[in-house]
Amino acid sequence: MGYVAVSGGDEAITNAEALLSFYRLKGGSTPVQVRQIREQLRLAVDKVMSEGSLYAPGIAALALKQAEGDGIEASFIVRAYRATQPRRYVSLPVDTRQMRVIRRISGAFQDVPGGQVLGPTRDYTQRLVDFSLSEETPELVAGFFEKIGVQTSRSVLPDTFPKVIDLLRGEGLLAEPGDQDRKLSDITREAISFPCSRSAKLQSLARGETGVMMALAYSSMRGFGDIHPYLGELRVGTVPLFINHRAKERPVYLGPVLVTEAEIISGQYEDDQGIPKLTLGYGLCFGHNELKAIAMGVLDRTMQSQAPQRAPAEDEEFVLYHIDGIESSGFSAHWKLPHYVTFQSTLDRLRRTQKMQEEADALAPKPEPEPQTPGL
Amino acid sequence: MGTNLESVSDQVFTSQRFYRLLLDAMARPGKIVTLPKLEIEPPEGLSWPIAGLAFTLLDQETTFAVLPNEQSWNRYLCLNTGSRQAAVSGAEFIIIDGRVDLPELLTVNRGDLLFPDRGATLMVMASAVGDAGADIRLTLQGPGIPGQKDLSLSGLCVSNLERVQTLNREFPLGVDLMISDNAGALVCIPRSSIVQTQRSDVAAEVNG
Amino acid sequence: MRPNQNQSRKHPGYNFAFLDENTKREIRRKLLKAVAIPGYQVPFASPELPIARGWGTGGLQITMAIIGPADILKVIDQGCDGSVNAVNIRKLLVKTTGVTTTFDTNVASIIQTRHRIPEEAMRQDQILVLQVPIPEPLRYVEASEAKTREMHGEMDYSRMWVYLYENIVQYGEITIGARYPSLVNRRYLIDPSPIPRWDVPKLNQAETLCLFGAGREKRIYAVPPHTLVEPLEFEDFRFRVEDFTGRSCIRCGASDTYMNELYDSQSGRKLFVCSDSGYCDRRREQSPEEAQ
Question: Given C66, C150, C227, which is nearest B23 (Cβ)?
């Protein structure tokens, strides 16, 4: 007999990888194309891009395929890839007023200049399972395109849409940004410290995991906190990206980036002069992800809270340290690593304290037996 | 004369070798290490070992200052590292000609209690490190030093050393020194070291 | 040995040791500050690696920032070179550097470790890199990073002392096992990483430089050689290491090492084995009569 130390770790890992491929392919269905994921599962791709913090739909789609649809794992793959990419330029600031909108709505006003443009949304659909999708054939798809054709609407949509918050600003109703709002940090080059600049908060939120952000924002809306949010404006569309290049006189256009932007309006708040104003919570993320943009706007606002007793969504440390899906999933999963050395140390302590407890009990004076009450 | 843009062909490995020697020196204050000779041509007055250390540590994400404020050194370091010049009081790295009397040293960033790591790093050029006939003798104690260690230096203005000791009087606030000579000898004195100065004429004890 | 210029061409697409030079430089700068201020946690950018957060990215970044083609690398987890996570980390490092690896503590120039310090005393020409999950010793008593930073700044560790005192009052002993809070250079309190108490004394006045990396929490700290490291204790409740009295390793017969307690998968019997597998292997080679 004899105990053999752990070996074969290398082989085990290789076999585990092979098993993953096996599980993905054993069903025998046609291998899914990355293009199919990118086109037909665009919202999953957008979420992965946003949480991976890299605008690269092709990579995000591939990562989803590699991760067998596990969104957090796919975001991790994208984020790790991002870290290997050289950083050559910083873009010029993007003005989302220039957005080519595919969807634009406001909850705060019944109507706004440019109008409410529903765009592609499930908001007003009934959530009934669509069984016809299980029989979708190329012929049916071709038929669909033929039927809708190219339609022109009676009213012409403007190229760009003015901002609702500009209307509020024009009337002096919106609080102006403060000093912490003007400092430009880069959270990927510098660990955050508190109090945090607004740019550092927004960067953290922009790459945050949708689920946890939604839960925290929800907690605030339900009353763990003080803000009463309105959706001033939500817009989804492409914005142009420009850089300055030393060999060119004028800025160079790189291409369009699809983003979702949410402006959360909340009041009231007194500015430096003691004048009551509305405040703005800002949300912006890659791709089409409305829940995340809204949650981001709400959390941007809740973290501005100056309340002495802060609810979790108002505590900037609590929010910013726990919304990164890559960090939280990594640490949550790390308990699967061997911890037997530290556990051994815990057992040692436990045995010792048990022993001490026994010794203490042995030394303690025995309690007097209860006197028997003679017959009752 | 134009500013030299040095070749970067082997920089990954040269930086790594420089760095390991530097790390060893900082972890063992008073231990003298020898940097491998670099085939570079820094401007007059800027030694190749200090330039090499600058290439190893500086880039677009850091700031530096030079004392005295030689424009040729500034241009050379900016061009070859991508680092930006900053005021002496704000720079993370300060490249110093140790022989020159520099009262401005007292203005360098010492860090603060919340972020003592923000205290600057001083890269000091001396005439000789570890020379037996040196005019400055230091005794060092503290982390990284078994017992105590003697260190000989020459070509350093003693007032500069005294200024550094003033900067380092309230650990963990302070600055960290890298001292080298033209032969490539390098020694480090972090702010954690307790330094006693002896001069060849007078033995004096200064609180570290 | 001259550095091999072809190393970086071995794996096109990745720099030598994976990290880009900017990232390496930032870690190198921060490491120097960590060494200059023993025990102080230096914040660093800590960009992502292809290995998950919480699985050693901090230690890995330090190793990647300092390693060179001439280094000889040992990677252990729970003291064992063969454990799956050590294998994975070693593979990534070899893939991106081509360095020679070893299971022998005496031969390695860099040892990256999770939760153990090797049994054999390390030398001044070696560097120990420890993986840290939670760098903040004061997390036991304070959740806020802003507040713990202040506490370190003012050297106000009173709440930690109170915590230990209350431990004793409640249980008769300090119940902290691994991650034992220790004072470095009489100034900064550190979390020595989840090494068992057995290993904490090895940090005190060591010959070797010890570097600590917490990737997810984005902190680096260091214990230079010949530096005082004092685990917190009271005059009447001294720091104690784990008790292995009466136990010996079933493989090599040692009774003076940190041991793993385990249940044999065949017989169900409780057994003890050296946690430091490399050390255990060498003992078996040298004294086959003691081994089984």
Answer: C66
**A and C: number of Cβ contacts within 8 A:** 169
Which chains share 3+ C-beta pairs under 8 angstroms with C? A, B
Report the alpha-carbon distance of residue C85 to residue A263 in Å, rounded: 44
> What is the pLDDT tens value at each position of chain C, 292 positions in all?
333 334 444 445 678 999 989 999 999 999 999 999 999 999 999 988 888 888 899 999 999 999 999 999 999 999 999 888 899 899 999 999 999 999 999 999 999 999 999 999 999 999 999 999 999 999 999 999 999 999 999 999 999 999 999 999 988 888 898 999 999 999 999 999 999 999 999 999 999 999 999 999 999 999 999 999 999 999 999 999 998 899 999 999 999 999 998 888 888 888 999 999 999 999 998 877 655 4
Q: State residue A197 phi and psi, 5-degree precision.
A: -70, 155
- pTM to 2 decimals? 0.88
Residue A235 phi/psi, 5° resolution? -135, 145
Contact B85, B63 (CB under 8 A): yes
User: B11-199 architecture in CATH?
Assistant: 3-Layer(aba) Sandwich (3.40)
Report ipTM (2 d.p.).
0.94
User: Between chains, do C40 and B116 touch, taking CB under 8 Å as contact?
Assistant: yes
Neighbour count for residue C235 (Cβ, 10 Å): 5
Of A5, A338, A360, the CB nearest to C251: A5
Domain positions in chain B are 11-199
DSSP A181: G
Q: Between 3.40.190.10, 3.40.50.11310, 3.40.250.10, 3.40.605.10, what CATH number should domain C7-137+179-231 receive?
A: 3.40.50.11310
Which of the 8 DSSP states describes residue A179? G
Segments making up each domain of chain A, as ranges = 30-84, 96-127+156-328
Across the interface, do A9 and C218 touch by the CB < 8 Å criterion?
A: no
Where do the structural domains in chain C lie, given as residue ranges? Answer: 7-137+179-231, 243-292
Percentages (nearest 5) of helix, strand, coil residues in chain B = 25, 25, 50
Q: Do B172 and C26 touch (CB under 8 A)?
A: no
